[in-house]
Amino acid sequence: MDFTKKYDVVVVGGGIAGVAAALQAARCGKKTALLEKTVMPGGLATTGLIYVYLPLCDGKGKRVTFGLSEELLRLSIKYGPGEIPPSWHENIDNDENKRYTVFSPASFIIAMDEILGENGVDIWYDTLVCGVTQNDKRKITGVIVENASGRGLVEAECFIDSSGECAVARRAGCEILRNDNCQSIWALEYNRTHNRDIGFGERISRFFWGHLEPEDSKDSILYSDYSGKTVSKSVLDGRAKLRESLQKNYDSGQADRYSRYPLTLAAMPHFRKIYCIDGSYVLKAGEDNRHFEDSIGMAADWRESGPVWEIPYRTLIPSKPIGGLLAAGRCTAAAGDAWEITRVIPVAAMTGQVAGLAAALSIDAGIEPYELEVEALQRELRNLGFKLHLPEIGLNYR
Fold first, then answer.
1. Do 279 and 327 meet the contact criterion of CB atoms below 8 Å apart?
2. Would the CA dihedral through 313, 319, 325, 327 be positive or negative?
């Protein structure tokens, strides 16, 4: 090893969940590091150019998600354009796209850099996790990383896996779940041929092609594994679709290379559901509007108004206990349609914040995260303004 560093909490993955986890751990007074393999925070929301902040409300007049989810929403437009939707009390039964905020990825990135620095988070960009160290009780004691300084060991009392691919959990021997992905591409383009104003000026627009689920189309390109070559293939397939769209416009005379062209492309593959932990509880399809005693927050269904999901703390904990490990964001335990709920920005921010708080409380108590009394965690979440169960926002269980 070329270097060794020691922290209280290490967050692996600088997407929205990782940013929220690092912020909360640092605000709890813990020496916190955030490790990110790119040089930009935000994950798919920024590096992946999926720059749509999905709703915090149920579309029927009820605010659902609280805490850092709202703070990051406001941060996303601090240095750039975008409008926060009207109050949820005024936004009843509107079209789904009126519940969203579209933001500038670059603006959100520089705002997240700022807030992480202000809260004392030690940021490690361009740092790849390539291994873990564990003691004889399977507790994770460190992650092995590589960056411009060489190969090193980063140690901590608690690790939060918010990598989107269970980079830590898999290497620690945690059982995982996986999902097929369909090919898609998001890009930012200059387009003078259509007035498609999305908040960045009428000549800047987004190009999107793809299908979120295999059943959406028989023409979908399906990726049933996650490997080095599959990642390369998915990226190249997506760019081929963009070229195809451009050439079609050029050939038809609808546009030329001066009136329509790509401005920037995503710097990460558009796999939405890669790996998540096999948790102490796995959230499943059809469990919206259901009571969970250990709920640590709620999530709206971004695709339609009405359904609300309580998220159990057990989805952040591996089914077979591994010391010093919590999951957040897309790594939390979910299957099928429920994964569509937990993978998006507001829920990633919420589970990230919960993981950061749980890590701090566990360290203070001298216990593992899976030993933490959920009632103690819930008390602290309520102190942060969280609502945890449907009746607290005036909704009923079914």
1. yes
2. negative
Alpha helices in the chain (DSSP H): 16-27, 68-75, 105-118, 167-171, 228-252, 337-342, 345-365, 374-383
Tokens of 63: 């605010």
Q: Domains of the chain (ranges plus CATH)? A: 3-178+274-393 (3.50.50.60), 181-265 (no CATH)
What phi and psi values does residue 152 have, to the nearest 5 degrees?
A: -145, 175
For residue 38, what are its two tokens? 């790119």
Angle, alpha carbons 30-34-38 (nearest 5°): 175
CB 60 within 8 A of CB 296: no
Question: What separation, in Å, do the N-terminal and C-terminal C-alpha atoms of the chain show?
Answer: 55
Contact 388, 296 (CB under 8 A): yes
Question: Given CA atoms 275, 170, 13, 325 in this order, what sign does their dihedral have?
Answer: positive
Q: Return d(Cα 260, Cα 115) in angstroms, integer.
A: 36
Maximum CA extent, the chain: 68
Q: Could you tell me the sign of the dihedral formed by the alpha carbons of 189, 194, 200, 206, in that order?
A: negative
Query: pLDDT tens across 97-141, in order?
Result: 678 888 999 999 999 999 999 999 999 999 999 999 999 999 999
Cβ pair 342, 311 in contact under 8 A: yes
**Whether pTM exceeds 0.85:** yes
Q: Token pair of 67, please?
A: 């805490």
pLDDT digits (tens, 9 = 90+) for 187-230: 888 887 654 444 444 455 666 665 544 444 455 567 888 888 99
Structure confidence at residue 259 as a pLDDT band (50, 70, 90)? confident
Please give the pLDDT value at position 98: 75
User: How many Cα atoms sit within 13 Å of 225 on the Cβ side?
Assistant: 6
pLDDT at residue 201 in the model: 42
Instruction: Tell me the C-alpha distance between 287 and 289, whole Å.
Output: 6
Residues across the chain: 398
Helix (H, G, I), strand (E, B) or coil at 360: helix
For residues 316 and 166, what is the distance between their CA atoms, to the nearest angstrom? 12
- Using pLDDT thresholds of 50, 70 and 90, give the confidence band for residue 182: confident
